[in-house]
Design a protein that fits this description.
alpha/beta; eight-stranded mixed β-sheet; three-stranded antiparallel β-sheet; 21 strands; globular
């Protein structure tokens, strides 16, 4: 359902979109890089307002968010389109296919669905939620009024003004840190690393709960030198930010072999020497998916697949054994 976009300006009888750093200049009848915003009669419209391609109740760990209401479930919803062009995208059938089928769901209807299913909130995910900004802001405002949490799973490629608007209704984000090489980001993902870094910095400084994910892709970012740069960057922002390193599998246009598990474990071990909360995604469970107290080493949360069992955490997010303050947002008071 078309709706007027919030972030644009008239530029030389064309429209410049101001939502993301591409700053697409869109002529009459044209769309921008994301495929979701079009110029009609000198106004910019979002073509995907309320357009839902996917909706499901998911474990919060699937986002992945390991430190935000662990063990809970969240209504997850996505649209179509994306402003990056990752050749290995696992959700390419909706992120890169603007003709994918959607069904209209009004913001209030989405919130009612979340309440009806006893969800902790709404996760905007599957495709890129930032290009859904108008709908996200409307639904998110209603969700917050109803006591629900708003969660974004995003590539972080967004301009600062809309980001700050979105942060006013957002409780948690998982942001993709796809690479720490500016040339790789520009050539492979068709964006700018610097803008994603700024998103991470602003989101963290705003007090929003944040976790980061890096998919380790052979031939693109699978060097220990690059992983060390990411580790150092996270430490410079806040060493307690959870970092999910995820194993790649062939998808869409990219058919390299899956990420070497030995390399994954090497990155995990080096990172865990510096960062207290490091996890391996798309790998079988064990220590690499569990959470331990950085102070006393007690097992805090044990995970198997997308299920989580809280072992030794109590509200408001402290180790039940030693009292160390953890970077974990708890759903409720838990008796140990």
């Amino acid at each position: 359902m078309p709706a007027e976009a919030r972030y644009y300006e008239i530029h030389d009888n064309k429209i410049r979109c101001l939502l993301c750093p591409h700053h697409c200049v869109v002529g009459e009848g044209e769309t921008g890089i994301c495929g979701a915003r079009t110029n009609s009669n000198q106004r910019l419209y979002t073509k995907i307002y309320g357009g839902v391609s996917s909706i499901a109740m998911d474990p919060i760990e699937k986002k992945p968010l390991y430190h935000f209401y662990p063990g809970s479930f969240v209504l997850s919803v996505g649209t179509i389109g994306c402003n990056l062009k990752c050749p290995y995208c696992q959700n390419w059938n909706i992120s890169q296919n603007n003709s994918a089928k959607t069904s209209f769901l009004e913001p209030a209807g989405l919130v009612r669905a979340a309440k009806a299913q006893d969800s902790i909130g709404i996760a905007y995910t599957y495709s890129e939620p930032c290009i859904w900004a108008e709908y996200l802001l409307d639904a998110g405002a209603i969700a917050r009024q109803k006591g629900l949490k708003n969660i974004l799973v995003t590539n972080g490629f967004i301009n600062q003004a809309p980001l700050r608007d979105i942060l006013t209704i957002t409780d948690a984000m998982n942001i993709d840190l796809k690479t720490f090489n500016s040339d790789t980001f520009r050539k492979i993902h068709k964006g700018r690393l610097e803008d994603v870094i700024k998103t991470i910095e602003i989101t963290h400084s705003a007090g929003c709960h944040i976790e980061l994910t890096t998919l380790i892709v052979p031939g693109i970012n699978d060097t220990i030198e690059e992983m060390r740069k990411i580790i150092a960057f996270i430490k410079s922002i806040d060493e307690s930010i959870p970092w999910h390193i995820s194993r790649y599998f062939p998808a869409w246009k990219y058919d390299a072999a899956p990420t070497d598990t030995n390399f994954m474990l090497r990155v995990y071990e080096e990172a865990a020497e510096i960062l207290p909360y490091v996890y391996c995604g798309n790998m079988r469970g064990g220590r690499v998916n569990d959470t331990y107290c950085p102070s006393c080493g007690t097992l805090l949360i044990q995970r198997s697949g997308f299920s989580a069992e809280i072992k030794s955490v109590k509200s408001p997010g402290v180790c039940a054994k030693c009292g160390f303050k953890l970077n974990i947002v708890m759903q409720q008071i838990i008796s140990i």
